[in-house]
């Protein structure tokens, strides 16, 4: 018998032992809903929150997670017995191959989070324990709307804000607003003014919904929703367009999910005391470079908090603002003779990344040889150097993110 046979046999033996031991000490009644091609769409459409465990029977880590996930599902069912609220489901990827392909499952177990039928930007990457799963569900189902008693209470200069004025919370408009807020609570703050306090600010029985950008965004991004407030699709599209801007701020908290999108970063490192330069950069990108969003992620970054990447480029906070492309392999600095205020220079910078010119010139020097170099006989390529290594690739998801930590076993 070959080594592969014994490896498979050992894995199955370990799985059998661990699962039996866990169930002996933790007897549970499985409450995770088995999803298949017949019921998955209805389950997603009829529940506010669905968490799916994509597993494979032959996977040792899937087997370890199964009893934990089943017990969590049982506890969640006790906490939220009403229909339409939350479901913990499971998909056998060996038998439901079409569902696994639909959700691009490549590792087991993978845990996907879906809100109002749509995949959340973040997969579940927390601790794989009953307590952690239950806590995550409770956090997800918290009311995403803060009720305010005055306009001033809803002012938050650091965040993007969506505020709605409603006659009462029982209206269809408010329920649609809450559903949209649930989808986008990680990207915008949602406020609501209800009843008499706000009645004088708009015509009777009329709902008003407004978007207010953060303080680093141009005033032109301040919008009022002009559609039907009771139409979920139109309000959700409008709010998504505003809450997920073309130029985003990268932080240590969201770097992993943005990195996972796979597009190179065009980073505008700024000094936190210089908000005007950010506004100008956003105006330039929004006016002239919208078509480039398929090739790069436009991002702003606090150059003081992200001092480490700048150090790799030989830059300090006194050099800000600094424009950089991070390809996840190397970092390329905006040419010294270029001006970020010129949209054509930014466009050329992106073009040079995709043509290979940025990498080629780091190795061979500029393609053009100056007259002075020719006169002195220095017509050889510049000394070969390697561009600085990408810093942001280190913030990408761990290749082992689907496995259990040792202390969780």
Automatic annotation (TrEMBL):
| Entries under Pfam families matching the protein | Thioredoxin (PF00085), Thioredoxin_6 (PF13848)
GO function terms (MF aspect): protein disulfide isomerase activity
Domain Thioredoxin per the UniProt entry, residue ranges? 15-142
**Which GO biological-process labels does this protein carry?**
protein folding
Single GO cellular component annotation?
endoplasmic reticulum-Golgi intermediate compartment
> Which domain of life does the protein's organism represent?
Eukaryota
Q: Which InterPro entries match?
A: ERP44 (IPR052643), Thioredoxin-like_sf (IPR036249), Thioredoxin_domain (IPR013766)
**Gene3D superfamilies associated with the record:** Glutaredoxin
- What is the name of this protein? Thioredoxin domain-containing protein
């Amino acid at each position: 018998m070959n080594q592969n046979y014994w490896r498979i046999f050992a894995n199955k033996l370990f799985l059998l032992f661990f699962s039996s031991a866990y169930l002996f000490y933790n007897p549970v009644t499985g409450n995770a809903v088995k999803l298949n091609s017949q019921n998955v769409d209805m389950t997603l459409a009829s529940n506010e929150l669905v968490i799916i465990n994509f597993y494979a029977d032959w996977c040792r880590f899937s087997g370890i997670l199964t009893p934990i996930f089943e017990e969590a599902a049982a506890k969640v069912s006790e906490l939220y017995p009403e229909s339409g609220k939350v479901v913990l489901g499971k998909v056998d990827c060996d038998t439901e191959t079409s569902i696994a392909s639909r959700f691009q499952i490549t590792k087991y177990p993978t845990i996907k989070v879906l809100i109002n039928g749509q995949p959340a930007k973040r997969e579940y990457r927390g601790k794989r324990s009953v307590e952690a799963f239950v806590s995550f569900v409770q956090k997800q189902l918290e009311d995403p709307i803060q009720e305010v008693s005055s306009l001033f209470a809803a002012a938050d200069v650091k965040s993007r804000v969506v505020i709605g004025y409603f006659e009462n919370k029982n209206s269809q408009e408010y329920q649609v607003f809450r559903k949209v807020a649930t989808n986008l609570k990680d990207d915008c703050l949602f406020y609501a003014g209800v009843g008499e306090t706000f009645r004088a600010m708009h015509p009777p029985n009329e709902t008003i919904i407004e978007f207010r950008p953060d303080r680093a965004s141009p005033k032109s991004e301040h919008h009022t929703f002009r559609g039907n407030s009771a139409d979920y699709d139109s309000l959700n599209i409008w709010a998504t367009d505003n809450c997920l801007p073309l130029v985003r701020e990268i932080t240590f908290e969201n770097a992993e999910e943005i990195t996972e999108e796979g597009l190179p970063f065009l980073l505008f490192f700024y000094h936190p005391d210089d908000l005007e330069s950010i506004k100008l950069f956003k105006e330039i990108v929004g006016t002239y470079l919208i078509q480039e969003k398929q090739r790069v992620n436009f991002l702003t970054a606090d150059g003081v908090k992200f001092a480490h990447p700048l150090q790799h480029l030989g830059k300090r906070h006194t050099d800000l603002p600094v424009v950089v492309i991070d390809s996840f392999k190397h970092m390329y600095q905006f040419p010294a003779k270029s001006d970020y205020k010129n949209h054509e220079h930014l466009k050329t910078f992106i073009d040079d990344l995709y043509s290979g010119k940025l990498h080629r010139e780091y190795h061979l020097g500029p393609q053009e040889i100056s007259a002075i170099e020719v006169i002195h006989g220095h017509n050889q390529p510049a000394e070969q150097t390697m561009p600085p290594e990408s810093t942001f690739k280190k913030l990408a998801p761990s290749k082992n993110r689907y496995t259990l930590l040792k202390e969780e076993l």
